[in-house]
From TrEMBL:
UniProt keyword annotations, A-Z: Coiled coil
Protein name: BZIP domain-containing protein
Coiled coil regions in record: 12-61
The organism of origin for this protein: Phytophthora boehmeriae
Length: 397
């Protein structure tokens, strides 16, 4: 077996030299790689910085463009909103002007119709009061001091007459509707017939509404309204119809067929006096009436005649003054219609009388009392004004 030869010193030196050379080359290679990597890092940093700079520039440009676009959009939106508002305001103004024009046209036509009717009425009824009629006039200064009343104008009179016509029409439409269409409580609406009158009365709180309707034959409605007008202007005669009346004075004569009056009515309650300041007027009128019950053609009839109206007006002292603790103000709205009616289908001629009222006495107790007083007043009026005209005789004969 051969023995291993021990390396010589020269071999060891050669091996060590090779190892040192290998290690030197390896370290040199590492240094070159590190230097190269450092260069690459520098390049990457420069590229990153350039990219960041470009990105910032692009973002800034985008922001500027976006801000410009937003500003432009906001400006366009603001302009659009302003335009819409302006157009809406112009449309509303135009609609208001059109409605106002229509309202003024209707009002003007109503005024012209009223003035024409008033002139016709004045021609046909030049003097409604008897020469012997005694009218109690209250001095204008006293009326202003005691009642706060100031004289009305012709425009006020026209408005009051039109308001009365509308109010009475509303009451008639409400109370004369078929019972099955009446939405009000049955306990507050009473329908009855008494002495030939068709009566409908309704009490709602302190307001009493009523409609009394009756047909007559051979009645002179002109004379009827003249007697009614004369009686309503004189306390002594009016008390024959409403005995509780304590005061009836004229505050203003607006024309021969329109007066402003004050009336105090006694009440046997805690409120001892009900006071009203109202306009009483007489106008010529015509009205469409429902057909007769036996009319197979259901032809609408036309009534022509007169309307005697009563409508409360406000004063500066519609509040309770010192010393008037037992006094209350009552709101009155009343119309007495007297029409000549000719039924062309039957040739029948008759007269229709209709009382319509809406009075506000402030409480249900006083409204119920007013309902009973109104019914008695209508019957007394018929006996005082109509019965002599018809020469009614006793049923015993």
């Amino acid at each position: 077996m051969a023995r291993l030869r021990k390396p010589s010193a020269a071999d060891l030196e050669t091996r060590r030299r090779k190892n040192r050379e290998f290690m030197r080359k390896a370290r040199q290679q590492q240094r070159e790689e590190l230097h190269e990597m450092a260069g690459i890092v520098v390049q990457l940093e420069e590229q990153y910085a350039e990219l960041c700079r470009r990105s910032a520039s692009a973002t800034q440009a985008v922001d500027v463009a976006s801000n410009y676009q937003c500003s432009q959009n906001n400006g366009d939106y603001a302009v659009a909103v302003e335009l819409i508002k302006r157009l809406g305001a112009e449309k509303l103004l135009l609609q208001t002007m059109i409605q106002q024009k229509v309202a003024w046209t209707r009002q003007l036509q109503r005024i012209l119709d009223f003035e024409a009717s008033n002139r016709q009425c004045m021609r046909q009824l030049p003097g409604m009061l008897d020469a012997s009629a005694k009218i109690d006039m209250l001095d204008a200064d006293q009326a202003a001091e005691e009642l706060g009343f100031h004289p009305l104008t012709e425009w006020d009179l026209t408005r009051i007459i039109l308001d009365n016509k509308w109010n009475m029409g509303h009451v008639q439409n409400h109370l004369l509707a078929p019972p099955e269409l009446d939405t009000s409580s049955d306990t507050r609406t009473r329908r009855m017939q008494a002495f030939g009158w068709d009566i409908v009365q309704r009490v709602d709180g302190g307001v009493m509404e009523c409609v009394f309707t009756k047909r007559f034959s051979g009645l002179d409605i002109r004379g009827l309204m003249q007697r009614t007008w004369s009686n309503d202007m004189q306390l002594a005669k009016f008390r024959k119809i409403k005995a509780e009346t304590r005061r009836l004075q004229v505050l203003q004569q607006m024309n021969p067929h329109a007066y402003v009056l004050i009336r105090d009515v006694y009440s046997p309650t805690a409120i001892s006096t009900f006071r009203s300041v109202f306009v009483r007027f007489l106008v010529e009128a015509s009205k469409e009436l429902p057909p007769s019950a036996g009319d197979a053609n259901c032809q609408t009839l036309t009534g022509t005649g007169y309307v005697l109206g009563t409508q409360s007006v406000g004063t500066d002292h519609v509040r309770i003054m010192p010393g008037d603790e037992n006094l209350a103000w009552a709101g009155l709205a009343l119309s007495i219609e007297a029409f000549d009616v000719v039924d062309s289908s039957t040739g029948e001629t008759y007269q229709q009388i209709r009382w319509t009222g809406s009075n506000d006495y402030g409480s249900e107790e006083h409204a119920q009392r007013n309902a009973a007083d109104t019914m008695q007043g209508v019957l007394r009026w018929e006996m005082l004004v109509i019965a002599p005209a018809l020469n009614l005789v006793s049923l015993n004969h």
